[in-house]
Amino acid sequence: MTTHDRDTLLREAMALRAEQRPEAVSLNPTLPASWDMLEQLHRMTGDTVQASEAGRRLAVLKQLPPEIVAANSLLADGDLSPAEKGLRDYLRKDGDNVGAQRLLARIRQMQDAPDEAEALLKSVLERAPDYHAARFDYAMLLLQQQKHLQARQQAERLLEHDPVNRDYLKHYAAACVGLGDHEPVVDLYQRLLADTAQSGAEVADLRLWRANALKITGRQAEAIADYHAALTARPDYGVAWFSLANLKTYRFTDDDIARMRAAEAQPILQDMDRVYLCFALGKALEDQGDYKTSWSYYERGNAVRRASSRYRPEVAEACAVRLKQVFTAEVFAARAGWGLEDPAPIFILGLPRSGSTLIEQILASHSSVEGTQELTEIGRYAGELCGRDPDCGLPLDPEAMLRLTAADARALGERFLAETLTYRRLGRPFFIDKMPNNFWHIGLIHLMLPRATIIDVRREPMACCFGNLKQLFGSANQEFTYGVDDIARHYRTYLDLMRHWDEVLPGRVLRAPYEDLVDDLEGGVRRMLRHSGLAFEPACLAFHQTRRSVRTPSSEQVRQPIGREGLTQWRHYAPWLAPLHDALGDALTGYRD
């Protein structure tokens, strides 16, 4: 072997090791030895750019206190508790170290302690307002906490520093979406697309996000084109296939179905891509009348999704029992006159897939009512007061609400109106909060806002539960929808808790059965308007002509006249729904009581 051959083989071996070394670095980016070796390997292969970057990373690590490097290494290995302990010990010696505080905030967020993480990052930014990495962490945390206005404000601060930073721009767009401000997002995503090659994961994401914004604003044809563009960039992109199915009005071609089946059949596929593809195939085959195969895909998608969920139905059932023990008729009588006497909020609640988007669209067609979205404020207040179960988001300590004072209740009402003002762009006197899970919080809502309207939208249990079983939700708040037993138990728990609210707050909540609206639209509309203190307007009957952003899976359905199809769709699947029928038990007849 010549010297040239040996040198060539050596360089090829070094290049291979240089390619492999980033895998170790990506698994644990805090190991100085990995960056040191990577720098040497890149220099030996002549890649001076990568060598310089590795050298820069190594220099940063060498400047850090060893305690922070050790904690970072533990974090990278998933050892959160020892990493937290090491940082807390270090901060007792050097409490002003903003790098240690930022790292501790990341750990506390991963340990499901977002309030402490938020407080730590606030402290960091008070001491080091130009610490942009910490500000980005703070902005991301606010977004995950659904504090969209504050998240956008932080993104704006970051963009003042670096106006073309793609991560900052994406975060700004996500915060705008959370605030319901979709029109500028469409153009922003298009701008980002113009700056990148038309392939790959980033293009697929940008096309998907732009399509979602187009769909919400009613531009369906453009949305469909962007969903297909996302699939051109990434053919097995499950969420893009599902988003087409989730339009409810889109019909897949035979070629589409063949492509989805081929993608789903891949043995190596991310779990969520498989879940999305299964739900999309379920809808595609349902539209073709192949209900048996359709159900097999719905069932498979639910099983894969349920396997990753920590939801426990007994936790929800126990929470309902405790809420009933806390909020008695005597408790409400002793607190008469509490809260803010403002009739502006209209709460539409119940279970998902019960018709709440239809009710919202009807009421938002009234000249005095503004539709917003599924607002998260009430659930957040309950979490602040009682703590939140990490698996289902329900109050951990409902008894804590008994410690509220009259001043606290009024302050919460004022806070709700102030924090939701950003969603009220039309300035109408009434506005809708359509968060279905607020049925858990009717007691708190009554104490805060005793004159607010509350409407419980209810649907026949088989239709409602089947609708949930075939709907994949983007939110972690609906974890009860991925199993027959889970959804049946949740429906029964919902009925039980609503009966309690009716007993202790008689007449406070208006029940609006979906089936009654289908049978007598005008009668149902007049009844809801009367309960809300509003005069009848014919526009409420022509709700499908109202142009507004709608952010739920029913966004395209409510742009059409009301129909009867949703009442009996589940019957196509009756041969496979006997376990659901049995699990619902007396709820099948008692849901109208």
Descriptive account of the structure:
This protein is mainly alpha-helical and 593 residues long. Among the domains are: 3-63, Serine Threonine Protein Phosphatase 5, Tetratricopeptide repeat (Alpha Horseshoe), CATH 1.25.40; 313-590, 3-Layer(aba) Sandwich (Rossmann fold), CATH 3.40.50. The protein contains 30 helices and five strands. The protein has helices spanning 3-27, 32-44, 48-63, 66-76, 80-93, 98-110, 114-127, 132-144, 148-161, 166-178, 183-194, 200-216, 220-233, 238-246, 254-264, 271-287, 291-307, 313-326, 329-334, 356-364, 377-386, 406-419, 442-448, 461-469, 484-504, 514-519, 521-532, 565-568, 578-584, 587-590; strands spanning 345-350, 369-373, 430-433, 453-458, 509-513.
CATH class placement of the domain at 313-590: Alpha Beta
Strand percentage: under 5%
Arrangement of strands in the largest sheet: 2-3-1-4-5
| CATH superfamily annotation of the domain at 313-590 | P-loop containing nucleotide triphosphate hydrolases
Remind me, CATH topology of the domain at 313-590? Rossmann fold
Average pLDDT score: 88
**Unreliable segments (pLDDT under 50, ≥5 consecutive)?**
1-28
Report, as a whole number of angstroms, the end-to-end distance.
90 Å
Structural class by SSE content: mainly alpha
Radius of gyration, whole Å? 27 Å
Please estimate the helix content: 55-70%
Biggest β-sheet strands, sense, barrel: 5 strands, parallel
Number of strands: 5
Shape: globular
**Number of DSSP helices?**
30
What would you say the CATH architecture of the domain at 313-590 is? 3-Layer(aba) Sandwich
